[in-house]
Structure formats: C-alpha cells, structure tokens
Design brief:
This protein is 29% helix and 28% strand. By secondary structure, it is of the alpha+beta class. The chain has 4 domains: 96 residues, Rossmann fold, CATH 3.40.50.20; 69 residues, ATP-grasp fold, A domain (Dna Ligase, domain 1, 2-Layer Sandwich), CATH 3.30.1490.20; 123 residues, 2-Layer Sandwich (D-amino Acid Aminotransferase, Chain A, domain 1), CATH 3.30.470; 74 residues, Phosphoribosylglycinamide synthetase, C-terminal domain (Glycinamide Ribonucleotide Synthetase, Chain A, domain 4, Alpha-Beta Complex), CATH 3.90.600.10. A 5-stranded parallel sheet has the order 3-2-1-4-5, sandwiched between helices. Strands 12-13-16-20-17 form a 5-stranded antiparallel sheet. Strand 7 and strand 8 form a beta hairpin. The mean pLDDT is 97.
Length: 425
C-alpha cells in the first residue's frame, strides 16, 4: 500500500516509524513531515504540503496512487478533511480519522458532554454557558466547590482548559473567555465542570465505526515543572503501561466507556473510522472521562507505538475497510518511557534555530523528532517541544534511565526537560 501520513510532530514521526516497519507499506509519504520522518528508509519521503491544504492533499493522493491517508493532528479532522477527500474530491482512498461529525467529540466540549450524557458514560457534572448567560455561569460557579474547571468549547491548541482555586478568579476568567473572546471563537461557549480528584491516564482505541481494538494505555505528564507544577504544555513525557491500570480497571473502562462510546457513535449515525483517545481519570478505582480526542496523543504515541507488536498497517487497513471484527493486538510486555526535550522558555516564548548536536551518540533510544528542521546541513530547533527520547526497560526505572542517558548525549542552547517523569507511579 502507498500511505500518506499528515502531520509534522513527534506523534506523526512515531506513527510513520511504525508504518515503515510493515511489509504491507510500499511507499510512505509524510506531509509535511520533519527531519526524523525523512530518515525512515528508502520507502519514506517528506512532502511539502500543509495539513489543511485539502486541495493539495487530494491532488497528491490522486497523482501518487495513495491507498490510505492517516491523519495525525485534530485540526484537519475537525475541519472536515475526511469528508472532503471522499465526498468532494471523490477519491477512492481509505481515510484514518473521523468525518467532521465524529470529530466533534474533540471539536466541541459541549457536544462531547451531551454525547456522554445521552450514552450514560461516566463524566463530571457540568453546565455550558454563552455570553448571554454569563450571570447564570456566575451562579453555577457559586454552587461548586473549588477548584473550578473552565473549558473553552472549541479547539484552543491545548490551552483552553483552566483549573482555578479562587472563585473571583474563576468568574473573571469566565467573563474574559465569553465577553472578551480570550480564545477567539473557541470560547464563545464555555463548559464549567465539577472537579474530579484522581490520577489521569489515557486509553486509545482504533475503530472501524462498529468494532474496535485497544492499543496500549499510557500516562502523560503535561506540566512544565517537576512534581507536576507550572504551566501546562503539550506534554513533557509519558509511560506505558500504567501500573494502576490492571485488568479489573480495563474491564470497567471497556464496559462503561469504550463500548458505549463506539456503540453511541454508531447509533447516532456518526460514521467514525480512526482513533478515539479517551482522556480518563481514576477516582477511587472508578474511571471517568475527562475528554475525548479524535486522534492519538502526543507524547503518548511515542510510547504506544513502540509497545505495539502487531502489524500496524494491517490494523489500519482493517479499520479503513470496516473489517476490524476479530482482530487482536499484541503488545510488547516491556515498559516504554519517553522524555521530551524542549526549548528554553517553553511553553512561553522561546528562541528557534538553535543548533542540535550529539544525536549520533545516542544509544538504546528511539529519538522522535517534534520541533526540528534542517538549516542547510545542520539540524536546528524549530518548535517548543523539540524531540522525544523513547526507551524500553523491564520496568519504568530501567526504561527512564535509558531515556535520560540518551538525553545526556544531545546538546542545544537552552535544552530543558523534566527529570521526574513517572514520579507518581
């Protein structure tokens, strides 16, 4: 099969790395890709196309006999790339990633909460407010105990969730979001939720719309500072498997959350082919949904893909063909850890174009590129999150030792990383 992966981050490098290992992949194109995806062997090549250039993507699919498009990031999915390629461009291609309707699970927090209510899926109590109902929002906040959870309804590049301890601050932020469009259109509606106290983890399903397989679960670390302090980021590291997610917990997750979600998408006529990322929280032994995403997580993909022993292209092809029934997934029993190195200043403003050296000295790690680019012959930084160092071990301690050993061998001006990934497991 000729396969096109859309995206340019660590997630897309990890997905492409796994696809390239399959004998079923003849040619692999990554658009726009990064210097890491450019080094995946003879069958792989980067393509200069933006993920939201639907016309350009459609033309490339046609001109290069692409059999399957795997969509990495959420933006093109919420913008309707699946619908465009099939309905408008009339292409005979498998698209891994939901149509626009299904992508609303991530594209609208209010939609996803209503969906969970209809399907009796455990989640925090909530209410949704607009500029016209701001006073009702203030009143609703008064009924809750701190901390207060405010979520912009739409996509806000991962920055649209605020957790605040002070009610005055919560009211001020609600006003900023609704009246001053703090997150643009994304906060024209705001979901206010009850706070759930527990430990978060992530579960990933690949579905053909009726059947599903589960991929390895993971736990990621969002905050910039040690001990989960400081500002939120796109993610500073991840571990898989998650020790507290045992068979009893996974049975609850499957029965209470995954199956009602897949069945609900089907019964509500929301055709869904692709990944469902369940952002979950373990509250005293019971799983609740914090959020859905309509794509894989980043940096979780950087530990999920290395633990996947099954042929990934075989699974993707089955999902795209509606033939996932009866498919099983084999996992590597080892622990995988990933630690993200980031630019100094991130998640605030940070410099770009810093020269990266020492990669050739890294051993016992797979390095997934996120924010890198070539400047002539030199590899330089081009984003906040620069690279993910993934390693295996018999347990998290051994895996993390290898990840951190790999990081020691690489250098760029301002290199920053968390030294305590996995501290709470």
């Amino acid at each position: 099969m000729n396969i096109l992966v859309l995206g340019s981050g660590g997630r897309e490098h990890a997905i492409s790395w796994k696809i390239a290992q399959s004998d079923k992949c003849t040619k692999l194109f990554v658009a726009p890709g990064n210097p890491g995806t450019a080094q995946l062997g003879e069958k792989a090549a980067n393509v200069e196309l933006g993920v939201n250039d639907f016309e350009g993507i459609a033309k490339f699919v046609q001109d290069n006999a692409v059999d399957m498009v795997v969509v990495g990031p959420e933006d093109p999915l919420v913008n309707g790339i699946h619908d465009y390629l099939i309905d408008e461009a009339k292409l005979d291609v498998k698209v891994i990633g939901p149509r626009k309707g299904g992508a609303q699970l991530e594209g609208s927090k209010d939609f996803s909460k209503q969906f969970m209510q209809r399907q009796n899926i455990p989640t925090a109590g909530y209410a949704t407010f607009t500029k016209d109902t701001l006073e009702d929002g203030f009143a609703f906040l008064e009924t809750l105990k701190a901390p207060y959870v405010l979520k912009a309804d739409g996509l806000a590049a991962g920055k649209g969730v605020l957790i605040l301890n002070d009610i005055k601050e919560a009211k001020d932020e609600l006003k900023l979001m609704l009246e001053d469009a703090k997150f643009g259109d994304a906060s024209s509606r705001v979901v206010i939720e009850e706070f759930l106290d527990g430990v978060e983890f992530s579960v990933f399903a690949l579905t053909d719309g009726k059947n599903y397989v589960l991929l390895p679960e993971a736990k990621d670390y969002k905050r910039i500072g040690e001990g989960d302090t400081g500002l939120n980021t796109g993610g500073m590291g991840a571990i898989s498997p998650v020790p507290f997610v045992d068979e009893a917990m996974m049975t609850k997750v499957r029965e209470r959350i995954v199956e009602p979600t897949i069945n609900g998408l089907s019964s509500e006529n929301l055709p869904y082919v692709g990944f469902v990322f369940f952002g979950l929280i373990n509250v005293n032994g019971d799983p609740f949904v914090i959020e859905y995403n309509c794509r894989m997580g980043d940096p979780e993909t950087e530990v999920v893909m290395p633990r996947l022993k099954s042929d990934f292209v075989d699974l993707l092809d089955a999902a795209g063909s509606g033939n996932l029934a009866g498919k099983s997934v084999e996992f590597d029993n080892r622990t995988a850890s990933t630690v993200m190195v980031v630019s100094g200043g991130y998640p605030g403003s940070y410099p770009k174009g810093k020269s990266i050296s020492g990669l050739e000295n890294v051993e016992n790690c797979v390095v997934f590129h996120a924010g890198t680019k070539m400047d002539g012959e030199n590899l330089v930084t081009s984003g906040g999150r620069v690279m993910a160092f993934t390693a295996y071990g018999s347990d998290k301690k051994e895996a993390l030792e290898q990840s951190y050993e790999g990081i020691k061998r690489v250098c760029f001006d301002g290199i920053t990383f968390r030294k305590d990934i996995g501290f709470d497991l």
